[in-house]
Amino acid sequence: MTNHWTPPSHRRPKLDLAALGIPAGRYILPDPTDFLLTPEGTNEGAARIHDYLNRKTGHDTLQPAELDFVRQHFLNAAEEQRQRAITHFESKVPRRYISARPTDLATAWAHTVTTTPETTRSLLIIGPTGTGKTHYAYSVLRALAETGAALKWAAYTAADLYAQLRPRTGRDSEATFEQIVGADVLFVDDLAAAKLTEWTEEVTYRLINHRYEQCKPGIFTSNVPPAQLRDALGERIASRLTEMCERVALKGDDRRKGMAA
Ligand SMILES: Nc1ncnc2c1ncn2[C@@H]1O[C@H](COP(=O)(O)OP(=O)(O)O)[C@@H](O)[C@H]1O
Ligand SMILES: [Mg+2]
After folding, report:
1. C-alpha dihedral sign at 115, 118, 121, 124
2. Are the beta carbons of 248 and 132 closer than 8 angstroms?
3. Pocket residue to mutate for ligand 1, from 138, 255, 256, most atoms within 8 A of Cβ
4. pLDDT tens digits, residue range 179-226?
5. Count of Cβ atoms closer than 10 Å to residue 48 Cβ
6. pLDDT (tens digit, 9 = 90+) per residue, 94-139?
7. Which of 73, 112, 121, 198 is deepest in the core (most CB within 10 A)?
8. CA of 209 relative to ligand 2 center, distance in Å
């Protein structure tokens, strides 16, 4: 007897898809009877696949053709999930940044988010106006979509965030806050672009502190030089950002200068 209650969904071990080389995700299971339609398909094979999918046996009980059948199904499902993630990203990214492509570093960061989100340091992208911070951030979100991982991301400029969270009658701004901070990856653009008021400082603090405590990765940008971050954001926010973020410093001229509108 045990005095611990285990929810039904936890009683059966999950399929170890990583062992098959399949990225994490929630996939529809294959129909074992479809195996009969393949050249090597047999009744016994379909039965073994059925037992594997019902977690009665491990994948090591499957014959090579059966394993191929299962793996191919999940590879197709993972590719569909990846295409959906990219389509979703392209429907959300502001048009200006739709062609932003990730650097190898940005891609590597996205991969660590999918494998070890709680130990991945957030990104703090710093640089003067027009050096490509927002472009860089969206390229990272594209890299994340391209991994195909089922991760929820959200993107806001700090100004839009404050507008969303400002108390208004008939609106539960606390519920909005919970929804925003709950994203797997949160991108907040242009921190400290405007001088913080007591209220915006408090909101920013709660937001950053929540992400900090939950060890959830984020992407933040600011055009405030590192040495002035404490003055611009206040000690509590700046010290958390410094601890939780890897810094990406963008340099160069304002790319907007000389650009056709
Ligand atoms: N690596 C890049 N390649 C091509 N265009 C870029 C690149 N980085 C930025 N841009 C373009 O330069 C302009 C300014 O970039 P943006 O990211 O908006 O700057 P910031 O956020 O630093 O003010 C935008 O039109 C953007 O699309
Ligand atoms: Mg910007």
Report:
1. positive
2. no
3. 255
4. 999 999 999 999 998 889 999 999 999 999 999 999 999 999 999 998
5. 22
6. 999 999 999 999 999 999 999 899 999 999 999 999 999 999 999 9
7. 73
8. 23
